[in-house]
Write a structure and sequence with these properties.
Elements lengths: L8 H13 L4 H12 L1 H12 L1 H8 L6 H5 L2 H5 L6 H9 L7 H8 L1 H8 L3 H12 L1 H8 L5 H14 L3 H12 L8 H14 L8 H4 L4 H8 L4 H4 L8 H11 L3
Helix pairs in contact: 1-2, 3-4, 7-11, 12-13, 12-14
Length: 250
């Protein structure tokens, strides 16, 4: 299937380089992602639109706002203590940092939609995916420290063939800890973890949040990282700790 969405190479590669050299500026990461995504946005949207969950969500009026639900912490806290929602709140640690709203603010989605030619359907879908970043962490089992963040980026690159994420993989492999035993195995394993898992874009998160996290994983058909990568994540070491400070993940 041909796509009307194209890649904006010069803008995307410049933004990707700026993100690598200044990782604390998340706006550059989103600019690189969206500028280089082009046909991938179209393909992933079509895959979502052909999935039963996607068909149902696209047909709803008004359409759901996943971010609105994820910011209702009192409602999420009222869900069972073993629920996906409880695990999500524990992942956030009661902080705004790393929340869906934090990512959406950096993404400037409406501006990107206007510049890159997305339809209203594309915009809604990309917004939902941006909202899902932390949910990927929780359902796949990656921590919120720098090794977990790198793991979930590699996992997402396996899930979605986004060119910027795949271009980042060699850079991620270069960020060896001071004791880099298993580092390449970890990054490659996280990528493989994402490839083997069903599409997390096609998950009804609103229906899943009240359910026990273990049940959610069974329904989706995803193994947590502890099972997919039994060796675990290597110790951070000084280089990753420096990256972590720059990105201010914790």
């Amino acid at each position: 299937m041909s796509s009307s969405l194209r890649r904006h190479w010069s803008k995307g590669l410049r933004s990707l380089w700026r993100f690598i050299t200044t990782p604390s500026d998340l706006a550059n990461s989103f600019e690189a992602m969206f500028a280089l995504a082009g046909p991938t946005v179209e393909r992933e949207f079509q895959r979502f639109a052909e999935h039963p969950v996607g068909q149902r969500l696209l047909a709803e009026r008004p359409r759901r706002d996943l971010n609105a639900l994820l910011t209702q912490h009192e409602a999420l806290a009222a869900m069972p203590p073993d629920s996906f929602a409880a695990a999500y709140l524990a992942y956030l640690g009661g902080e705004d940092m790393g929340s869906a709203g934090y990512f959406l603010e950096a993404a400037h989605l409406e501006e990107s939609a206007a510049r890159f030619g997305w339809s209203d359907d594309h915009l809604w879908f990309v917004r939902r995916m941006a909202n899902s970043h932390d949910l990927f962490h929780v359902v796949a089992g990656y921590d919120r420290d720098v090794t977990g963040e790198i793991g979930v980026i590699a996992f997402t690159a396996g899930q979605v063939p986004l060119l910027p994420l795949r271009l980042l993989l060699p850079y991620l492999l270069s960020l060896k800890p001071s004791e880099p035993i298993g580092w390449w195995r970890y990054v490659a394993g996280a990528y493989r973890h994402g490839r083997e898992a069903p599409s997390l874009a096609c998950v009804d998160y609103e229906a899943m949040l009240p359910k026990p996290l273990a049940e959610v994983r069974r329904e989706i058909g995803i193994r947590p990282v502890a099972e997919a990568l039994p060796a675990g994540a290597p110790a951070k070491g000084w280089l990753l700790e420096r990256v972590e400070r720059n990105v201010a993940l914790v």
